[in-house]
Amino acid sequence: MSTIKKKPSTFQNIFAGLAIVVLFIIAQIFFRVFLGDPANFEMKDGHPHPKNVWGTIYLGGEVVPFLITCLLVVVTFSIERLITISAASGTGSITNFVYKVKGLLAENDIQGAMDACDKQKGSIGNVIKSVLEKYKEMLTDNTKDKEQKIAAITKEQEDATALELPMLEKNLTVIATLASVSTLIGLLGTVLGMIKAFSSMSGGGAAAAAQLAVGISEALINTATGIGASALAIIAYNYFTSKIDELTYNIEEVCYSILQNFNAQVKN
């Protein structure tokens, strides 16, 4: 019997949505309390001017909290994915585990291979053990021919992998979405800031020109923050995708060895 249990996706969806709402609230508090602290500004010509980078970011406008939320979501979900994928890889080196299981299969030590899966744990251990259990069952099954038994083992591999992979890929769509959305939100903030900056020129004079320069620098903060969040999201998405692909490849490599071993053991 398979040891794999499917995680309830409904709970995970609720958790992800709730996490985004909480992070948005945190971003709003950070924006209004910390960035909006009067200590970050000084009055010149009757207008507040930033004294430091925090004040400059605050004057980026109401788009800034959304950009901070994007950044916080990417960081939070990346940490969550890192923990999940690390747990899925098991307690030891995947490479050593793969070599060990393949060596035990070459010696026809099926029980030893299953014990190695119990020690490794994680998604890779669960999937391989599930396939080995089916392998062991098919060795004593006299109701099927060889092709049917191989098909049953292959199906067990597909079913076990299909139960594990959605858990590994969970929330990656959020990170991938933020990779493009963050840039667009940043550009929106920049455009709004530029409109505001150019409107300040209507009065003319040196003061207006100075206000324009300040406004442009404030507007570009949105672009910088958006691009930064997008870059982090792209790096995180590609990293986690590569780790999942590596895990999937190792599972397929061991399962291929299991099928080869079964094919050599069973004559008909």
From TrEMBL:
Main location as per UniProt: membrane
Membrane topology of the entry: Multi-pass membrane protein
Location(s) in or outside the cell: Cell membrane; Membrane
Annotated MotA/TolQ/ExbB proton channel domain residues: 138-252
Transmembrane segment boundaries: 12-35, 55-79, 172-199, 219-240
Cross-referenced Pfam families: MotA_ExbB (PF01618)
Protein's name in the database: MotA/TolQ/ExbB proton channel family
Originating organism: Raineya orbicola
